Amino acid sequence: MRVVLGVSGSVAAFRAADLARELMRQGAEVRVCLTDAAQKFVSVALFEALTGQPCLVDTFEEPNRGRMAHIDWARQADLVIVAPATANTVAKIAHGVGDDMLTTLVLASTKPLLIAPAMNPSMYTNEAFQEALRVLMARGAMVVEPAEGDVACGENGQGKLASIPAIVAAALDALQQSKMLAGKTVLITSGPTREALDDVRYLSNRSSGKMGAAVAQAALQLGAAKVRIVTGPASVVYPAQAEVAQVMSADEMLESARAWAPDSDLIIGVAAVADYRPQTRVRGKMRRSAEPLQLVLEPNPDIIAELARVAPKARVVGFAAEPTADLAVAREKLARKGLFAIAANDVSDTSIGFESGQNELSVVFADGRVHQTGRGSKLRCALSLLQAIGAD
Ligand code: C5P
């Protein structure tokens, strides 16, 4: 396993030396990247001697000439740890600033990120810092909280870098999680479908595609080899590493998803598929008249049920957006569609679900078990969902 250890400018920077050694004892190859401020406390020479690897400091440094080190290191790492993480470095990472080698490398990385903050207790509880930490956690970063006690500036409170064993345990956990879906192919249906009435009008729903994008991101973070998304028209941005098929109607979604289903290990139906479509599609534009207009609708195919049928070996998971917290309807759908599990969310609570950045899922399994993801960002919920689903 390859770990990039980012060290920023806290007094606790000296403890990163022990952390590097302990990670190496656990079998990791450790490469250290220091911020300018970190160099006021510790030196490149110390870490190069300890790790036997070159350190990075300057954004334009290229230990291998002609190869951009921040991209190389980000690609080769299995895990990026920032320990100690200062308020400044955390805020920069949260807001996408890359003004030194460490922040640029973190920006370029798609690997799991583990952050161990260390700072004065007032800085730690500062709302601006806490907000930045929440932003990173919502994006899937893991945080090893600082310990309480006496800190270097003479104050007492929460701000001391967590213990080395606690950081190493979190790192091993993160590495294990990042391999959970290794070698697996994941298929996700996402977004709404659009059922045409005529050439300019359609029936659709409020699905934003955010939950589908979060499930795709979570699958990648858990190490899936291939993530494929069949999406209806949604403005959300899907992860660049996913293969995306854009469709409009439920029929088109079924066709694309069915082609991919047989070689999928995990199939997650996040799409809000329109239950009905107009029986006839008018060419051109329907004309206005003084009479009431009656539309005749016919049912759409049940995509996830069909995918469960054509991919019997896959773990097939549905979503159930219900206007109640009662799981009875979700259980009925789980059985009727032949699913491995179903993730229910209560859409009567407007603070979660449709168009929101937050969600809360109750994952009901065919054997009756229920896993609660708790309330959090859609990515947090997606990670918790996939961890509960697991893989063979
Ligand atoms: O039956 P209901 O639409 O409530 O079930 C929701 C689950 O079934 C979701 O996972 C959704 O993606 C899937 N579904 C589907 N095709 C449909 C309707 C729902 O795949 N026509």
Features of the shown structure:
392 residues; alpha/beta; Rossmann fold; eight-stranded mixed sheet; five-stranded parallel sheet; 13 helices; 19 strands; 32% helix; binds cytidine-5'-monophosphate
What does this structure look like?
- The chain has 13 helices and 19 strands.
- With 392 residues, the protein is α/β, with parallel strands linked by helices.
- It folds into two domains: 177 residues, Flavin prenyltransferase-like (Rossmann fold); 205 residues, CoaB-like (Rossmann fold, 3-Layer(aba) Sandwich), CATH 3.40.50.10300.
- Strands 12-11-8-13-16-17-18-19 form an eight-stranded mixed sheet, with helices on both faces. Strands 2-1-3-4-5 form a five-stranded parallel sheet, sandwiched between helices. Strands 6-7 form a two-stranded antiparallel sheet.
- It starts with a strand and ends with a helix.
- The structure holds cytidine-5'-monophosphate.
- Cytidine-5'-monophosphate binds next to helix 11 and strand 16.
CATH superfamily of the largest domain: CoaB-like
Mean pLDDT: 94
Shape: elongated
Question: Which structural class best describes the helix and strand composition?
Answer: alpha/beta
Number of helical segments with 4 or more residues: 13
Strand content: 15-25%
What's the structural domain tally? Answer: 2
Q: Oligomeric status of the shown chains? A: single chain
Report the span from N to C terminus: 23 Å
| Rg over C-alpha atoms, rounded to the nearest angstrom | 24 Å
Number of strands: 19
By CATH, the topology of the largest domain is: Rossmann fold
Briefly, what CATH class of the largest domain?
A: Alpha Beta
Low-confidence stretches: none
Give the ligands present: cytidine-5'-monophosphate
Mind summarizing the main beta sheet?
Answer: 8 strands, mixed
